[in-house]
Amino acid sequence: MINQAFRALVVEEVEGKVEATLKECTLPDLGEGGTIIKANYSGVNYKDALGTIKNGGVIRSYPMIPGIDVIGEVIETTDLILKKGDRVVVTGNGLGVSHTGGFSEIVRVPNEWVVKLPEIVNDKEAATIGTAGLTALQAISQLEKIGMADKSPRILVTGATGGVGSIAIAMLKSLGYETITALSRKKNEDYLKLIGATEVLGLEEFMPEKIKPLQRQEYDYVIDTIGGESVAAILPQINYAGGIALCGNASGISFSTTVLPFILRGITMVGIDSVQLSNEIKRTIWNRIGSELDESLLSQIGHVEEPLDNIEQV
Questions:
Q1: For the packed helices 279-292 and 163-174, what is the interaxial angle rounded to 10 degrees?
Q2: Per-residue pLDDT, 118
Q3: CA angle, corner 37, sides to 45 and 79, nearest 5?
Q4: What pLDDT shows up at residue 18?
Q5: Which of 20, 114, 237, 265 is deepest in the core (most CB within 10 A)?
């Protein structure tokens, strides 16, 4: 059993304010679980940032160690399949939200949350991909189920410079899709074309002055990472029998639309959740990432590697 102290970022509510501080912790400070992991990497996600501010809507009780994903190696486990030294990844399931998370040198989680990393994915690649990559790949998989894989589709990705958007574009390019439009600021055009986009549109040129129930059919499939009223503008532009995967709400949780794109063009809307995915689906996604994602494209996706000592500034 681990009995020495280790460091972790602890979020606490102090006199009505939320404070995040790097502190020394011991095993009793961690959530319950049968597997103890030495953390090598944890990505910094939008959800983690919300967890460090008051009324961020992520953390419900304090103190809490944020970090919604972690990559590392097993130190101890009661699991019958896992063993000491296994390289593993944990995402979702309340990690860093209702259960102490990845911004810690030592992480303890229930056995059933742990997924062994395939040999073809190294720790740093897994950290770059993280929860955002799982979400992107799940969105792609769901759209392929409704026909995207059988066509040469026109694909739109919103929030394209974010983690989900960037990995979605790189994966789509890796899979051979040739027409990928990125919705982002024009200043990001060089970067987005480097990772696989064929066209970049700014929101100001994309959004019409007036959103009509049905408009010119511009896209076959859409991966939307931002939500909000941009979804209302996208739906009327989706081609007959196309589809949209919704997986984010950075621009809001609501939008106004009509039933016409659904009943006159037969489009499909699918919701993407990466928190409660089964380990079977996660393993499938990680294996697909390892075998099909072009490493040269992944290496272009912007990321900064920092030690835990700098986590308060990150």
A1: 60
A2: 94
A3: 120
A4: 86
A5: 114
